[in-house]
Amino acid sequence: NKKASKYNRSEVKMGGINKVSQARAGDRSGSGRSNVFLVVKNGDDAHVKIIPSGKDDDSRLDDVFMHVIEMTKDDGKKTFRGYYCMKQENVQCEWCKSGSKTQHQFSFWAFVYFILHAEQKNVDWKEVQNKKGEKKYMEEINDFRLFSKGFGMKDYLWNQLVNISNEVDSLGDNVVRIQRTGIGRDDTSYSISLTTKKAELLDDDVKKSSLLPNIKDFYKGEKKWPPQDDPVAIKEESEDLGPDTTKVEDSSDDEEKDLF
């Protein structure tokens, strides 16, 4: 059984708010397991603790270039697969050779306490009410997830994270909400917002957080998560993903291309 954490509780390494911002400015001029990624769908409200501090050289927050490839599964459903662009490692990239364009994304590790869903799609989700009196359905996670998204139009989503870093000493000081509205490419938006609740972890989760791999090491497949020798890491899969760490897949019906 999964124990719950307290709610109130290459050559130059890239990492941190400042360095990813610098990389983004220049751009403008795993494990393969489904439960590694935080997938936020229409109406979802995820309450998380961001693990990296946001300081320079904390590479548990980093930028990556991905090839996002649209595919059709055997059942006819549309799916998207992301492939880490090896050009970042000064290695010939087959996707670049084929003419596929890259998408610049930022990624960070987070401890997800729970996700509030607009609809009850699982009987185990607990019915709750938000401050507006609206019914929501709470899915308890209490585990680490990787959140990865594009920077957004005019970097709106990235700038929300930068604004949070300007308000706190460390990105992980307070609980952060990650929300999404919309399902299509043209009407989907995300928000990353700071709450006043202190973000705390149980001692065992603090120890596990120190083992989280750097973002690029994870995508390259050099570091696994969850650790292969961790018996607690064997979990049920909820999405179909590719077999290696350089490829991830979201099998939802959403039309949005920027899915992970």
What does this structure look like?
- With 260 residues, this protein is an alpha+beta fold.
- 16% of the residues lie in helices and 32% in strands.
- The protein is built from 5 helices and 9 strands, in the order αβββαβββαββααβ.
- Strands 1, 2, 3, 4, 5, 6, 7, 8 and 9 form a 9-stranded antiparallel sheet that branches.
- A hairpin with a 5-residue loop joins β5 and β6.
- It starts with 15 loop residues before the first helix and ends in a 10-residue tail after the last strand.
- The model is unreliable at 6-13, 28-33, 231-246 and 248-255 (pLDDT under 50).
Keyphrases for this structure?
nine-stranded antiparallel beta sheet, 260 residues, 16% helix, 5 helices, alpha+beta, 9 strands
Q: What's this model, at a glance?
A:
The protein is an alpha+beta fold and 260 residues long. It has helices at residues 16-28, 94-97, 156-167, 203-209, 215-220, and strands spanning 45-50, 61-72, 78-84, 103-117, 126-129, 135-150, 174-181, 189-198, 247-250. It has five helices and nine strands; from the N terminus they run αβββαβββαββααβ.
List the SSEs and their pairings:
Blueprint: H1 16-28, E1 45-50, E2 61-72, E3 78-84, H2 94-97, E4 103-117, E5 126-129, E6 135-150, H3 156-167, E7 174-181, E8 189-198, H4 203-209, H5 215-220, E9 247-250
Antiparallel strand pairs: 1-4, 1-7, 2-3, 2-4, 3-9, 4-6, 5-6, 7-8
